Amino acid sequence: MPLAFTNARIFTGTETIEGKALIVRDDKIDSLTELSHIPSGCELIDCGGNYLTAGFIDLQIAGGGGYLFSAEPTPEALEAITAAIVRTGTTGFLIAIPTNSNEVYRQVINTAGENPNPALLGLHIEGPFLNPLRRGAHIKE
Question: Is the pTM of this model over 0.85?
Fold first, then answer.
């Protein structure tokens, strides 16, 4: 069923549009239309005057929802991290793993590979090839 988002401040990236409806069909933006031209059969969603904008993408997130993924690379941790992140307007992210052991890398890759949530876009794996003199917080091993 198509959706019609109404009563929103629609931010396009360059301007804010008010008094129109954003129509979504098959999970894709179909059109921006006058309120009087909303197609029949649309489910109306009142945005309460809030902003409606494209989702954010975070290219380096280490955790959320009480979890640090490199410390606990489990499906449960990844589900909690994802739930916490998407609540804030981020619709896609790369989970970041600081330099770590090969075992942790394997667990991270396996867990992420089995995760069905489309918000997880991939992995941001740091290291293991870092200058030991400039490794900062990364483990030396």
Answer: no
